[in-house]
Specification:
Blueprint: H1 3-13, E1 26-29, E2 39-42, H2 47-55, E3 60-63, H3 80-90, E4 94-97, H4 100-104, H5 110-117, E5 121-134, E6 137-151, H6 153-163, E7 170-171, E8 179-188, H7 193-198, E9 203-207, E10 222-225, H8 228-232, H9 235-246, E11 252-254
Parallel strand pairs: 2-3, 2-11, 3-4, 8-9, 9-10
Antiparallel strand pairs: 1-4, 5-6, 6-8, 7-10
Length: about 260
């Protein structure tokens, strides 16, 4: 099987033109016409991930985050990005990213995966992109949904930490009212806070909030920051399930490496 066949299927799941303008999803390194020996699925591409692929005889790495985000002007090995790209080229390993296009689709998307993990009902796109639909579903950022039964805020936060396997949850002042309507966005979702407030969500779950941005909750909503890696870590298993249903006679692996660069004490 060619690498292009895997790419084509992933672009059926999450069309590449649904990615954000700033993003760099798609095939970043390698030749799509090469035969695929095996593929390794990860959240990030690190030097350890590349070594894992080599050990597995996998000549394709499918990651959520693109290793090349800005422009690459040289390959001298001065930083980890240059070293990874150079080593991937040397070892003929294709690097493919499926990032904000996978965030923006509803079915098989990052955010629906989180919402279902939290047992939300009546799930819909939080901020649809105008005039964009796919498989009769809106395309856009974040999702919002309802708990079947309202729960006390502290109980919800503890369950959130447990279900998302987060090391910690940073949150704003509690409002002393039950949590029923939940908005969320995997990764950096600060830009959706006002929309979550407009739709009367009781809590907004995301990551990468800066100190002063927590004040923007403004006693209207609870912000829960669970960490970037933590919010998207289950994307790996989701992609594995999607691909194994389609390619059941092909060697697919998901990484055993924790690529979270953040440590907690």
């Amino acid at each position: 099987m060619k690498i292009s066949e895997i790419i084509d299927y992933l672009h059926e799941v999450a069309p590449n033109h649904f990615q954000e303008e700033y993003d760099n999803s798609g095939l970043l390194v390698g030749n799509a016409d090469n035969e695929a020996t095996a593929a390794l699925i990860s959240l990030d591409v690190t030097e350890e991930i590349l070594d894992e692929a080599l050990a597995l005889n996998a000549n394709m790495i499918i990651s959520h985050h693109p290793i090349i985000f800005g422009g690459l002007r040289r390959l001298t090995g001065r930083n980890y990005v240059e070293r990874i790209v150079a080593k991937a080229i040397k070892n003929d390993i294709a690097l493919f990213a499926i990032h904000t296009n996978l965030d923006n689709v509803y079915q098989n998307g990052v955010n629906l995966n989180i919402a279902e993990r939290l047992n939300l009902k009546n799930i819909r796109i939080l901020q649809p992109k105008e005039k964009l639909t796919y498989l009769d579903q809106n395309v856009g950022a974040g999702v919002i949904g309802d708990l079947e039964n309202p729960v006390e805020e502290t109980f919800f936060l503890k369950e959130l930490k447990r279900k998302m396997e987060a090391q910690s949850v940073k949150y704003t002042a509690l409002l002393n009212k039950p949590i029923r309507k939940v908005a969320l966005c995997g990764g950096s979702g600060r830009f959706l806070l006002e929309e979550a407030k407009r739709q009367k969500a009781d809590i907004f779950i995301s990551s990468d909030f800066k100190y002063h941005e927590f004040f923007d909750a403004d006693n209207q909503i609870v912000i829960a920051d669970i960490g970037h890696f933590e919010s998207e870590q289950f994307t790996i298993q989701m992609l594995y399930k999607i691909l194994t249903k389609k390619f059941n006679n092909f060697a697919l692996h998901y990484t055993k490496v924790n690529t979270n660069p953040v440590n907690y004490l």
